[in-house]
Amino acid sequence: MYKTLMDQVGNTPLVKIQRLVNPQTNSIVLGKLEGNNPAGSVKDRPAFNMIKQAQLRGQIKPGDTLIEATSGNTGIALAMVAAMMGYKMKLIMPSNMSMERKASMAAYGAELITVSKEEGMEGARDLANRMQAEGQGIVLDQFANPDNPLAHYHSTGPEIWRDTQGKVTHFVSAMGTTGTIMGTSMYLKEQNPQVQIVGVQPEDGAAIPGIRRWPAEYMPKIYESTRVDRIIDMSQTLAEDTMRAMATQEGIFAGVSSGGAMAAALKVASEVENAVIVAIVCDRGDRYLSTGVFG
């Protein structure tokens, strides 16, 4: 039986980090390579699930126009799924996002609308809501849509549990919309309440693509603080240094937020014993080349 593209979302590799881990530690650090999804990031999972579930509920139908505010990966994923399932896609993003991200969205046929760097993601979200109110399309709203975390509850979490044979002790994820950490936490805590969930956010002043410190009024509605045991504030320098080290020492070519998640996972590994720590490597590094972060 032939498979379709949607059958290829998920079931990404879980690989052992070999050289970045302190050789004195007896803990294992694993990276889940979400760049292996069809559109190249962890956001393929919620993008597919949000459109699929809205269609099943009869809220949308092929031919409709969908609208979403995005900093990049969700937009690329939604553009792919929209093309695959027959929808028109309008994506709103800050103008300072990388050229690769913008070009990828356009390649899938999405219409791009930019707001200023100063308006940022908050401004993009406000504009999406205004466009929906004006009848220009339907906002999926990854920040409040339960189908975002449920994608990870039904796929990411079970895959990690399966591939570690239930031995995972810590799960580390950068936090943007927080869908990944919410849904995966929900699943893993059901299997073993002792699994520690570690979120990563930028420290004050850091600009790490894809992750945010949200003002209270813009905090994603899907976020529940009780599902996260610890939050690590990440410096931009450490995230970028770890991202480059992942490429040169592990052969894992990923983006800056993945570097932040891995840096946090390595920090946890240095603090605990006999742990199995899984970090989300959320995308590939090729969509950041034009920014110069790889030198």
UniProtKB/TrEMBL annotation:
Cofactor annotation: pyridoxal 5'-phosphate
Any one Gene Ontology molecular-function term assigned to this protein's record: cysteine synthase activity
Entry keywords, A to Z: Amino-acid biosynthesis, Cysteine biosynthesis, Pyridoxal phosphate, Transferase
Pathway: Amino-acid biosynthesis; L-cysteine biosynthesis; L-cysteine from L-serine: step 2/2
Pfam families found in the cross-reference section: PALP
Catalytic reactions on record: O-acetyl-L-serine + hydrogen sulfide = L-cysteine + acetate
Modified residues (N6-(pyridoxal phosphate)lysine): 43
The protein's Enzyme Commission number: 2.5.1.47
TM annotation in the entry: none
Ranges of residues in domain Tryptophan synthase beta chain-like PALP: 7-283
Superkingdom classification of source: Bacteria
Residues where pyridoxal 5'-phosphate binds: 73, 176-180, 257
GO terms for biological process, alphabetical: cysteine biosynthetic process from serine
InterPro entries: Cys_synth, Cys_Synth/Cystath_Beta-Synth, CysM, P-phosphate_BS, TrpB-like_PALP, TrpB-like_PALP_sf
Family: Belongs to the cysteine synthase/cystathionine beta-synthase family.
Protein name as it appears in the record: Cysteine synthase
Origin species: Thiosulfativibrio zosterae
